[in-house]
Amino acid sequence: MGKLIFILVDALGFDVATKHFGFLEHMAETGQAAKYRLYGELPSLSRPMYETLLTGLPVWQHGITANEVCRKSRVENIFSMTRKASLTNACAGYSWLLELYGDRSLPFDLYRDRYCLDGSGDIMHGIFYCSDDYPDSHLYSDAEFLRRQYKPDFLMIHPMGVDFAGHRFTALSKEYAMQAAHSCVQIATQWENWVRDGYQIVVTGDHGMDHLGLHEGNEPIQRETPLYIISDRVKYGDFSGGEPVLTSLDVCPLLCALLNIPTVPGMIKTKVLFRGN
Fold first, then answer.
1. Of 100, 84, 10, 11, residue with least CA distance to 51
2. Among 45, 116, 148, 233, which residue is least crowded by beta carbons within 10 Å?
3. Is the pTM of this model over 0.90?
4. Which residue stretches of the chain have pLDDT < 50?
């Protein structure tokens, strides 16, 4: 079995990552990581894309069509699949993830649901927040608590700071760029500990952000996100300029492959380049 940390940086557009994710750009440039351009599914909204990224299914199929569709996931997802494979999972993330994959009643209640440890839903161990301006540094600290306390095989980390800055100041702003850089610094300070403890690392975004501070539509700036992979299983290098062309549908089967668990019907075979292929 492989161990994996999956970091979903909300609203991390491809261009802002390329310009300001210095550490991960360095890793790809020096042949220590893989980098791809990920073309997001539509609509380029958060809750629909959480479900697409974590199930490998398009929106029309899984049915989470808008942020306002607040219900439990009705299909297999990476949390349910890891649980069924007798792996331990954990999540430090936004409340919508608990609403989708947790065992608490809806909607999220901060005073009841922030700590969901030893849960009986698809997510086993979680710490959740509901304020979009919750500091990314605190969120990564929450994740590190879960990692050290429960030693999960699969850990999802979901910071919201980049999305918050993009909506408030737009994709052209200094604030959006600074928040992206700050999130990358959090990864850079922890990656050596993670790799030492046997974790592979996957980093991507759910959507981008446009010059008006919006996302949902069909512009490349709203749809394109980076995909960084640190794993001895994949070929390293910067593949973001050409073939293969990846979409959000590639992510869940990639996670399954890195965790050595089977995919489920409806998923595509990820186009990420693996060693030996």
1. 100
2. 148
3. yes
4. none
